[in-house]
Specification:
single chain, MetI-like fold, mainly alpha
């Protein structure tokens, strides 16, 4: 190969690399632009909510509407929180009480069921697991009336029992499925070694599977907290005493206090206070959530 041919080949290779770099740059630019557009679409309602919560009552009802407040009014949060005929501190404590009592039940019962489906051999195991997954396609409204009648017969209406007790018996089909997939990836050699040492299934579940499944357990716990925090239907059906209301139910009550002249600034302020803890929780724990789902074999 002559020197001129070598130079030509080298030049063509450099041009090809430059073309590939430009193509990669353009493709990345398109991907990032689409991601930015999608993020903006999802974030825009949150920005509008926070912006409205910081506006004065006059500016909220002005026309044409403004996107950002001309004057910040942070007192909306204090006034809305302490508004008459509301009990936001008590409703917050009620919600936290449900979280503290429900999350352990979901984690423990779901992990026990998942361990049974993943490691125990019993007649009809696969059929029972399919039935558990099939329950995901059953709308909650289908069982609403039978459950209401059951809890009425038990005298549990207007108490937290209908919201707490069922979570200690199964933990939810999606949680069982998630933990079962995680447990299936744990080597069976650990079970065999523990069995040789005389460990029972409960010991293996508690001392081996639970520590190893921490990412999946954290994912289940966080998703459960999010569900409790946003749950409106359950408290609405079973709770009638305002002293027992949760935040989701209390926010709806707060909205009805302004039937003629809505105080959108107050409503947005309370909504922001409700959303903020969940955003902080997700930002702090998103690594565990992603790790729990990916390790369980559930990928987006």
């Amino acid at each position: 190969m002559t020197s001129s041919t070598a130079i030509y080949v080298a030049t063509q290779a450099e041009e090809l690399k430059a073309v590939r770099r430009r193509q990669e740059f353009v493709s990345k630019l398109i991907v990032y632009a689409l991601l930015f557009l999608g993020a903006a679409i999802f974030i825009l309602p949150l920005v509008v909510m926070v912006s409205t919560s910081l506006k004065s009552y006059t500016e909220v009802n002005s026309y044409p509407p403004t996107f950002l407040p001309t004057r910040l009014v942070p007192s909306n949060y204090v006034e809305a929180w302490n508004y008459k005929n509301t009990q936001f501190p008590r409703w917050t404590l009620n919600t936290l009480f449900l979280i503290v009592t429900i999350v352990p039940g979901v984690v423990i019962s779901a992990s026990l069921c998942a361990y049974g489906f993943a490691r125990l051999k019993f007649p009809g195991r696969n059929i029972w697991f399919i039935l558990v997954l099939a329950s995901l396609m059953l709308p909650s409204q289908v069982t609403l009336i039978p459950l209401y009648i059951l809890f009425y017969k038990l005298g549990w209406l207007n108490t937290f029992a209908p919201l707490i007790v069922p979570t200690w018996f199964g933990g939810g089909a999606i949680n069982i499925f998630l933990l079962r997939q995680f447990f299936m990836q744990i080597p069976r050699e650990l079970d065999e070694a523990a069995t040789i040492d005389g460990a029972s299934h409960l010991t293996i579940w508690w001392r081996i599977y639970m520590p190893l499944a921490r990412p999946a357990l954290i994912s289940v716990a966080l998703l459960t907290v999010l569900g409790i925090w946003n749950d409106f239907l359950g408290p609405f059906i079973y709770l009638s005493n305002p002293d027992n209301f949760t935040l989701a139910l209390g926010l709806n009550v707060f909205r009805t206090l302004f039937p003629t002249v809505p105080r959108t600034d107050y409503i947005m302020a309370i909504s922001t206070l409700m959303v903020l803890p969940m955003i902080v929780m997700f930002l702090l724990a998103q690594r565990y959530i992603v790790q729990g789902f990916v390790t369980s074999g559930i990928k987006g």
